[in-house]
Amino acid sequence: MTARRTVDKTPARVGYGTLLRTPGARGFLVPAFAARLPYAMLSLGIVLLVLDTHGSYGTAGVVAAVSAVAQALVGPQTGRLADRYGQSAVLLPSVLVHALSVGALIALALGHAPVWALLLAAAPAGASVPQIGAMVRARWVARLADSSPGTLNTAFAFESVTDEFTFVVGPVLATAIATGVTPAAGLVAEAALTVVGGLAFAARRGTAPARHPRVPGARRVSALASPGVRLLAGAFLGVGTVFGAMQVSVTAFAEAAGRPGASGLVYGVFAGGSMLAGVLYGMVAWRRSARGRMLGSYALLVLGCSTLWAMPDLTSLTLAGLVCGLAIAPTLITGYTLVETLVPDGAKTEAFTWLTGAIGLGLATGSTVAGRLIDGHGPSAGFLVPVAGAGLGLLALVVLRRLLVAPATGGPTTAAGDGTAGAAVTAGAVAAAVGRASSESAAAAAPDRTPAAHGGGRARLVGAAKG
Known about the structure:
- The protein is mainly α.
- It has helices spanning 16-20, 25-36, 42-54, 57-85, 87-110, 115-127, 132-143, 149-180, 183-203, 227-256, 263-281, 290-305, 314-342, 348-377, 384-399, 423-427, 429-435, 441-445; strands spanning 219-220, 413-414.
- Helix 4 packs antiparallel against helix 5.
- The two termini are 23 Å apart.
């Protein structure tokens, strides 16, 4: 199918109470929360376990990074399969493979296996993480197909806040279990929540979107065939570098200030600002173009990140982090809304997972680069990574913003093609955009005539309407 959501120029505001009264919504939201919480527990759980068994931050970071990269690269393929064969058909084997892989990783770590063995177990553990956030957004799109764009916008805002909450609670839960029981217990809890929540979510078949199998003679299309999806993936990669670099840099800054325990408070304010912005964003009936909102919120993110490296103490760093956080959720909400308008029905889950995977890939990249800068130049140097990553993302969005217009529907297509455009396309979207800046300069200067809209999809994350 090639159906895309029609944009309403004057969407009405829809409250969260109205959203939650959608038939069947609570039935899939509760198990979805339990199943997506492990998404924020896996990396930290790996770090805590490997650090305890192998005594090396470097080794722990590499193992966690391999898991994150595998998740970022394989997640979109999982989304494509869910679009084609149905969510339950994909979730059942995914959660079982994940449980077995995490169990193998735990056993190898406790047995002091060589690093290469840990990496072999970490790859499938990350690759098999269920893409619950993307699947929930796909369910909202299906359930709200006949509703106003404002309702979908509220749904994506709700999902953004949920993602933020899981990324605050997940690491805290993993740390509490690992330090209070045993380092391996954090990963055991992660695997258990994945299995229980994933199977419960899969059992809610009545609210799942329709399958989109191959149609004989139809042209097969991947979500990455859309230039707009590739552009948004590159922009989300920049957001991911902010997450990764902030986690490492805030911790190092607090330790250098002699207050290591304050890192949780600083990062909590950062995440709390994003949660607050997400709640408020979903309560507004936006009339401005979503493309314009995307550029505005992303510019605010770059502005906030540009001050982090110069902060002299934890108090000022906390305030600067709050400004950054206020821009995160609106950016993600708008991005997920835009991507929902750029792809046909049979590629929406895949498109959402590309954005979620881009964030994960950016997180791994940001934390790694920031760690190296901190080792060589001190804690403040790590804060250069967020402004660099977000700055490249903003440049790409400004230069190529015309790609965020939903294309006219054409002939028969099916959105689950065999040929993927490749992970390199996603990871390199920002660099490619910059390289094409000169050829797109005329388009960048053209006025924005697209109507306003609402909606979106996310992982952390959510979007607004097409610009």
